[in-house]
Q: What sequence folds into this?
């Protein structure tokens, strides 16, 4: 039972466009303002998305 609000800042789709995302079978919404945090500092959102703090690092091979 997730409200349609940004999981980070709590703004609703009436205030700001929201993007849908799925994590561990649960649908969440996040606004474009908070999306960079999810991309670059997912551990900051671990409180909202349990398990993110253990997200394995992506292997970059340049
Ligand atoms: Zn937000």
A:
């Amino acid at each position: 039972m997730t409200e349609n609000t940004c999981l980070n800042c709590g703004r609703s789709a009436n205030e700001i466009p929201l993007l849908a995302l799925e994590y561990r079978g649960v649908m969440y919404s996040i606004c474009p303002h908070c999306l960079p945090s999810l991309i670059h500092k997912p551990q900051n959102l671990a409180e909202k998305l349990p398990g993110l703090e253990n997200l394995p690092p992506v292997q970059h091979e340049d």
User: Anything to note?
Assistant: Residues 35-40 form the longest helix (6 residues). The CA atoms of residues 23 and 49 lie 8 Å apart. Residues 1-50 form one domain. DSSP finds one helix and two strands in the chain.
